[in-house]
Write a structure and sequence with these properties.
- This protein is of the alpha+beta class and 214 residues long.
- The protein has one domain.
- 30% of the residues lie in helices and 19% in strands.
- The chain is built from seven helices and nine strands, in the order E-E-H-E-E-H-E-E-E-E-H-H-E-H-H-H.
- The chain has helices spanning 40-49, 78-85, 126-131, 139-146, 159-165, 181-194, 201-211, and strands at 2-7, 11-16, 71-73, 76-77, 88-92, 98-104, 111-112, 118-122, 154-158.
- The strands form four sheets. Strands 5-6-7 form a three-stranded antiparallel beta sheet, covered by helices on one side. A two-stranded antiparallel sheet has the order 1-2. A two-stranded antiparallel sheet has the order 3-4.
- Strand 5 (88-92) and strand 6 form a beta hairpin.
């Protein structure tokens, strides 16, 4: 916007007033992307190949049969490794525990700046693994599964959201953030496929529905 002012007919000035700049909008923090997440097409192929079976050994699960948290690299155990991997602008101490950083929980989109607000979730819950084939594994193999950072099995998520999930499979629990269904199902199927775990018919139906959102 501009206007002119004249003083004594001799002085003319044009004053230019700049239009107000819009407030900058902060870019959303990126969602964490653990390794090994397949495409939707690949996940659908993997899902079709999984064995559908009823759960086994449903009364014999014990959390201690899946040892955690192993040392992954340097002084970082599995929990610390995932917290560091999934953070933005993270600073860690000599023990690898994050002293500062920012996290976006992919399950609910919540943002955190304290590592204590986050749990490390097993995409395929340990009890679900137990009743879908892991009860027949050695303890060493179950330890590898519980600390698997090569596939999309471990995620840093809001602690109370992790608590609400517990040992539930996708037919009983889905992430609060519906836009994450596609990624959730792709990751879940990849883990089940790699570790040759079975699924129930209800699980398969739920996963199919979630993959159809991709």
């Amino acid at each position: 916007m501009k206007f002119s002012a004249t003083l004594g007919g001799l002085l003319s000035a044009t004053v230019v007033i700049a239009a107000p700049m819009p407030n900058p909008v902060a870019a959303p923090m990126p969602m964490p992307t653990p390794p090994g997440i397949p495409t939707a097409a690949s996940a659908k192929t993997q899902l079709a190949s999984l064995t559908v079976a009823t759960p086994v050994d449903t009364t014999t699960y014990d959390r201690d049969l899946f040892p955690t948290w192993d040392t992954i690299t340097g002084t970082c155990n599995t929990r610390e490794y995932v917290l560091k991997r999934d953070a933005t602008s993270v600073v860690v101490g000599s023990d690898c525990y994050p002293t500062s950083g920012s996290w976006t929980s992919p399950y609910d989109g919540a943002k955190w700046t304290a590592a204590s607000d986050l749990d490390i979730d097993h995409m395929v819950p340990l009890k679900n693994a137990w009743i879908s084939g892991a009860s027949k594994w050695t303890t060493a193999k179950r330890e590898q599964f519980a600390n698997d950072v090569t596939r999309p099995q471990l995620w840093a998520v809001t602690d109370n959201v992790n608590s609400s999930k517990g040992d539930k499979s996708p037919d009983s629990w889905k992430p609060p953030l519906a836009s994450f269904y596609c990624t959730y199902a792709r990751a879940y199927v990849q883990v089940k496929s790699y570790w040759a775990l079975t699924i129930t018919s209800a699980e398969k139906t739920a996963l199919t529905s979630m993959l159809n959102t991709c």
